[in-house]
Amino acid sequence: MITRYTIGNPIETESVITDIPLDKGDIPFWTRKDDEKSLSISLAEDARVFGLGETIRGINKRGWVYDSNCTDDPVHSEDKHSLYAAQNFFIISSSEQTFGTYIDTPGKVRFDIGYTEMDRFAIRFEDFDADIYIIQAPGMVDIVKEFRKIIGKSYIPPKWAFGFGQSRWSYMTADEVREVADKYEEAGIPIDSIYLDIDYMERFKDFTINAEAFPNFEEFVSEMKNRDIHLVPIIDAGVKIEDGYDVYEEGVEKDYFCKKEDGERLVAAVWPGRVHFPDFLDENARKWFGEKYKILIDKGIDGFWNDMNEPAIFYTEDHLSEVFEKIDDYKGKNLDIHDFFDFKDLTGSISNNAEDYKRFYHNYHGKKIRHDKVHNIFGYNMTRAAGEAFDRLCPDRRILMFSRSSYIGMHRYGGVWCGDNMSWWSHLLLNIQQMPALNMCGFLYCGADIGGFGADTTEDLMMRWTEFGIFTPLFRNHSALGTRRQELYRFKNIPAFKKMIELRYALIPYLYSEFMKAAQENDMLFKPLSFEYPTDKDAFEVEDQLLVGESIMIAPIYKQNARGRYVYLPEDMKMLRFRAYNDYDEDNMTVGHHYIKTSLEEVLVFVRKGHVLPMAEPAVRAMKVDDTNLNYITFDTTPDTYRLYKDDGVSR
Ligand code: GLC
Question: Is the pTM of the predicted complex or chain greater than 0.90?
Fold first, then answer.
């Protein structure tokens, strides 16, 4: 059962696509305080909170403050409050009550979950305008399904996007891309895609190609396609200001860029220097920008990633001139503690400055709305621009799309990757913990940069992260400029990496089936244990094991030098300790806590009772995996049937 309540005059986000009649009564469960612009609820001792999508910290969100405010911040440390996404759906579960809440507002919201007061959950709004949905159903999975029904079906990528992808900021030339493909093929490691980061463009201009580095781009795309490798270019939110650049000139002519109060176009800066931001909230601008993807689709491209769409702002022209003006006051001065910190604040506040997000406006449903009021739906609408265009341009086939920034509703148009993580062991754990929360909010096609984006990775971190990544739909190794190269063939134990990637490909029939069923039935692909075992108190506390689909549980190792780990089994299961898809130990294990030894090259999978894990012979490309000849692994001798999903992998 879902009921809708309204506070103030909410700005429509178009995240909910089902008409839920308005209930004019009091919002159940929550105490509303208009003077504090808050809703609050007391948290029982055993209450746990799940959801909020892509955020920091654990699966149980209790004990911290989470700001719903899409932010470009590459340091995802425990002390932060927001990442790139705003996904305001969560479930509170205790022995007294279990229900879901969706706070639908494009503006800023603060979720204080037992931080200020350990036994209180307070939601504080910057503007007290929101649609509130209360979702009640018997269990947590039912609540998620009810919620997902009203926000519409999740995006489905082409099947090749379940293969392995290699990325780097950046492969600078076509030859460098060829070399990556060659090296993977020489090593016999399966691969389906190679990503093109910002340097494929001509001076970071969207929908252009650097013709010197990537001559005859179209031929190059088809050359790679003949090798069954998909090239996936990045698209950034800012459009470079440059005379003669058609996207810029058209945007100006048609008046599709965001403007300031005085009607002047906002001048911000990102990779190309000065840019304008297309007004993705304006339907016409959205349509116009979406059509631009055709330029690359016509060259044979069938996948994209949308970036910097919070939007990230290096600086705005206006703020920068204010800073330059003030800097003079500090010149030649003896900077004491106060002056020095003021000076630091001044120069350190240039990027992603909160005031800059108040300097520009959108034309949203015919109304002029200041950006900060709709900040959280900007990236969503960039990806929607692409998704709506793909519906028109390629109605018969799927295009890969995932975005950095997101809001609920965007899950209909694309997936997400979790942005600029670091090559830290703690971020491998974070990746594990983010997956179920993303699924709750409708984002099924997701994953993080395997091996870590920022900082230098190590071979063992790469191995352990790959061992987890083989289960995430988006399975991409990506790293930042200036960090250690981390293509798998660069490490010592190439055969072990090859075996892991092959294991992924052997699992594709299962992962694809489970993904498609989750998409069609509004289910989650990744579940915390307590979602399936709601009365098992031990399962409540498990923050580092996940159920993946209906048949298996995984227990990834995310600590350096660990050669084993404690695993909690909520029921009897069959343990598989894989060294390769065709080389594994099996052991029937009983419910309870176990310490399981696992070498660096081994990955643990547990098959649930009465369930089936189908496995294929791996192939070097996802589309070549033969799903007619499967090996079925079961726990007991009389398993249930398994619903295997098959299709051509491309059509809608
Ligand atoms: C951003 C993206 C990252 C990309 C980089 C350069 O930091 O999050 O994935 O590599 O920009 O485009």
Answer: yes
